[in-house]
Amino acid sequence: MLSxxxxxxxxxxxxxxxxxxxxxxxxxxxxxDQLVLDQxxxxxxxxxxxxxxxxPLSGDQAIAACKRAIDKLNQLRNDLTERVDRDLLAxxxxxxxxxxxxxxxxxxxxxxxxxxxxxxxHTAEEVDRASATAEHRxxxxxxxxxxxxxxxxxxxxxxxxxxxxxxxxxxxxLYRQLKMYNDPALNPVLYSxxxxxxxxx
Length: 201
Known about the structure:
Layout: H1 4-19, H2 31-53, H3 60-90, H4 106-128, H5 134-166, H6 188-199
Helix pairs in contact: 1-2, 1-4, 2-3, 2-4, 3-4, 4-5
């Protein structure tokens, strides 16, 4: 069910396609593939909203709208990471609770691979940017080497973790993120504002 090289390929295909619709469209062969693409799309949208939020020419209203969108996308990203882990656990027999526990889940590792795919794409853009200085391009070539090494290491670690889990040598658990800032019952700013609204004449 889980193939780290296939996930990396999906991430790269989707990143190219979402930046350029003339590029080949990534194909989700399974429900799990689609979940990986959905998680990556949340990170893709989050990346570009984070860029927009730092536009020095944007007004306060535009920045506020960006920050609210970022909150929603972060929540979606976390929800999708949990869904990835839930689907992976559902594909396995019950895991022995006495097995060594791996604290970082496969879903979190796939999320990190997604972000690395975006960093690699945008760093490669800087290497090729015609208006950049030679020093800038060289600096980004060095960064690109580091990013590719980090992704190779993480992909290999995911392969090894999944093999250990399938072989009954290791286990993981579904870790709920339990975010509070978007929940009107848990964020004091939100529930205080709601209480003030309720008491207004």
